Amino acid sequence: MLRNTIRSKPELNRSDSDPVRRGPVRRMLRWGGFAVVLAAALIFGGFLRFADSVTTLKPPAEPHADAIVVLTGGYQRIDQAVELLQKGAGKRLLISGVHPTTTRAQIRKMTQAAPELFSCCVDIGYDALDTIGNAEEATNWIHAKGYKSVLIVTNNYHMPRSLAELAYVDPDTQFIPYPVVNTDLKNANWFTDPNAMRVMLAEYAKVLLAGARNITGLGRHPGLRSAEGDE
């Protein structure tokens, strides 16, 4: 009888301690699950808001500013920026982020703009490597020229991140968005197009990363060829 009692004690002790050990673990798993669900909901809601802002973004009816900056990434953007310059929407144009192998003559020929317009009023920026570099390059140009308001020309899906980077580097200048509408996003059912969805998801991820980087200051780089050469 005594032997049976002694044998049963470890079983009683083990069963009594299990709830104590399992309780904190279960609570941690439960709260961790809630946190994951909440984070997923916030990210998904943010994507819907981002998609709505991009697809409804329209250029101003009567665009006008001191100057114009176009961020390279497609000839359609440059064509639109040159057209704005021709119409007098700004005094001068900066084409930011041009590859070093691309000449001024090639760009002028591509846009079919008058040589006189390029000679007097167009500057070519070869220093920017990415959107951060675009912001740095544009800000240097804006301050050198003394401009206070600037039209920003880029694709609609690229506009939120571009404005965020520009505002981070130069909060005092008024940046006026002039989106070049991506034809894939004109369709109300763009989300069923794998290519359009991939572009939007990739850009949204970049927006989130840019926001986190600008808040924390971690992982921010100059984005300029000249800065890379100095390292």
Strand residue content: 5-15%
Tell me what the CATH architecture of the largest domain is.
3-Layer(aba) Sandwich
How many domain regions? 2
Please state the CA-atom Rg, rounded to the nearest Å: 27 Å
Look up the CATH topology of the largest domain.
Rossmann fold
How many helices does DSSP assign? 8
Unreliable stretches: 8-12
Read across the widest sheet, the strand sequence of neighbours is 3-2-1-4-5
Task: Tell the overall outline.
Answer: elongated
Any overview of this molecule?
It is a single chain. With about 230 residues, the chain is an alpha/beta fold. The chain has two domains: about 1-55; about 65-180 and about 190-230, Rossmann fold, CATH 3.40.50. It starts with a helix and ends with a helix. Helix 5 (about 130-145) crosses helix 6 (about 160-170) and helix 6 (about 160-170) packs parallel to helix 7. The protein has helices at about 1-55, 75-85, 105-110, 115-120, 130-145, 160-170, 195-215, 225-230; strands at about 65-70, 95, 120-125, 150-155, 175-180. The longest helix has about 55 residues, at about 1-55. It is elongated. It contains eight helices and five strands; from the N terminus they run H-E-H-E-H-H-E-H-E-H-E-H-H. The protein has a five-stranded parallel sheet, sandwiched between helices. The model is unreliable at about 10 (pLDDT under 50).
